[in-house]
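Q: Got one fold?
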Amino acid sequence: MKYENITSATFLSRPNRFIAEVEINGACEVVHVKNTGRCKELLLPGCEVWLTAPASSGRKTKYDLVAVKKSNGLLINIDSQAPNKVALEWLRSQGYENIRPEYSYGDSRIDFYMEKNGEKYLMEVKGCTLEIDGVGFFPDAPTERGVKHIHELIRAKSDGYRPILCFVIQMDGITEVRPNISMHPEFGIAMDEAKKEGVEILFLPCHVEPDLLEAKSSVFPADPLIQQAIGYITGLFRENADGHDLDHTLRVYRTAMKISKKYKKCDKKIVALASLLHDADDPKLFHTGNNGNARKFLSSHKVSKKETDAICRVINSVSFSHNKDKAPSSIEEKIVQDSDRLDAMGAIGIARTFAYGGKHDRSLDDSVRHFYEKLLLLYDLLNTDEAKKIGRKRALFLKEFLREYKEETE
């Protein structure tokens, strides 16, 4: 979602939970705060905030305060109405049908009812604006209503619905939300109960700008081990931006999980961890041997030796240069290898090639040569039918790009 008429200002004070005083161009202005939560760690005197002017009739204030820059530099959208709008955009992009907001169920109004593949879903949405040491927390104030909604979702499971508790994360770089038990222990208890009873917990990361809040394509399940793996690779790749970076790894993970859904016999835990750790020991980036970084993470999180060895076998099957004459043997190896190779094809493959070339002082022609040495070969090397479906369009795009490049450079 995008805001119109965005204006920057300096926060001064918050007389009550509905309004704030800000400074715009040297003048004090009273504005509406679109979040009744406490936001104590965000709305500090002197911080930079952003306002939108809706120009709707009957307003007591001209502006709504919708975003704030935290003291650590993190830009956070605090509009409490935004998560539902973003969630609705995301649901539409995922192929859900008959989407009904504010659906009456039991004694509550659940944020969304929707249908997909003959199944009925109920989804409750929570917006996360509280960040502590790189992790999101909810709530930032006690919420009896939130606890009630979770209990309704638990009941909906027994009534034949697929219930979802979705956290829209209103800041960049955060992929996990934990219950803020120090603020509201009952919410944490209810969330634990929901997990045990089969309520699906989803984390929806977002990209934030002063005038924008939009869901990223990745949606992360509330699996502690997966979240810890994401946190680990975030630290590993923090300084890298040459195409073998965090975004690449997360794309490979998303693609691998998408493909794995088509293969019931594959071990999804192995696929998930291998895809997330597949570049953790890339010799272009790290001076480790024998999957040192991957094994260190897995050992520290008590993953069994059998599973660790299986994950490392999958990781070792990924490299293009080391596996030219080897066919992957397991379905997990095939899925993760395909997912990595798909990320070297199409528009993203082109972008990554030139990002890597620029960082390593390669000329344009040197980078284009890489297309013929590797990228154009990848489609015929894909293993799974699902990957071939995805790769077909990407392979054609590569050829069209090269045709246009040749025409423009000759």
Remarks:
- The chain has a mean pLDDT of 92.
- DSSP finds twelve helices and 16 strands in the chain.
